[in-house]
Amino acid sequence: MTPAGPRKTAAYIGALAGLGLILAACSSGADPANYPEDDIDVIVPFSAGGPTDTVTRMVAEPMSEELGVQLVVQNVDGAGGTVGAGQAATAEPDGYTVLMHHIGMSTAPALYDDLAYDPVADFKPVGLVTEVPMTIVGSPDFEPTTFEEFVSHIQENADTVTMAHAGEGSASNLCGLLLMDALGVEVTAVPYDGTGPAMGELVGGQVDFMCDQTTNTTGQIEAGKVKAYAVTTPERIEALPDLPTTAEGGQPDIEVSVWHGLYVPAETPDEVVTQLTDALQVALADQMVIDQMADLGTAPVAADQATPEAHATLLQEQIESWGDIIGAGQGG
Length: 332
Ligand code: MLT
What we know:
Layout: H1 6-27, E1 40-44, H2 51-67, E2 71-75, H3 82-89, E3 97-102, H4 104-111, E4 123-138, H5 147-156, E5 162-165, H6 171-183, E6 188-191, H7 195-203, E7 209-213, H8 214-222, E8 227-231, E9 257-265, H9 270-284, H10 287-295, H11 308-329
Parallel strand pairs: 1-2, 1-3, 5-6, 5-7
Antiparallel strand pairs: 3-9, 4-7, 4-8, 4-9
Helix pairs in contact: 2-9, 4-11
Bound molecules: D-malate.
């Protein structure tokens, strides 16, 4: 066989490289050129009916329209969201498994020694979605009616008061830790797999109070089913104009809101991530999504935040800052 000339060799190498790319994509099962050609599972690491589930279902519909396939919510709850995130980390990197997670993605490394995944190395960020304020709410039978009364009641009765949350590292857990730290008390914490089920127990009077996202509390507050004490943002929010801020109630350190973002397994091809990011941006510009979020006290992030780059930057920053806060809290 005549030795191949340089050009032929170059052509071979080019073809091999091309083949390599296709093989790599095929080995990950992804076919970016024809993506998506099947329904896409969206893992929500908390129970159905809760705030993260609510936000996911809001964007899933317009994203489904944009991508031409269904985004199907799969609630995989437990351990403050780490069970669902762990399942997503090991899913096939073909674009058919997406994870919706929140601030809990950045707290888990500092809280779980045996975490089954690395939030940075095992995932590719698709884009941020929204940043949800939190509210401090009480069961209808809970004695305090104002935030000031709530603070003194907690400080005087810490050993008998119960607080619901969605597991270690969840947003409701973090807010609860901030609250207890600011008030210098330790109350009995009652974990659930999500604040969806916790809300049922709160309305029923099985637990005394909870710190939870407006996407789960606004409706209950407006219906008078729970007592509302304060919102954890620097300014009051439009959806609940009569609800004072924690700062107005003399507790400025109890300030937190819950950023949410979409993720795919780390080996998912960039072309697939781009398609998901584009669909997310279309969803966040959708007037119905904007109105639904406004009714529940939040809003889509700005378009320049609904990008893999902005998402990756925030995730890294939050892992570092929560690592310091939690480390300091654990006497580190
Ligand atoms: C949920 O969807 O249940 C919440 O996001 C849980 C939490 O983090 O408090």
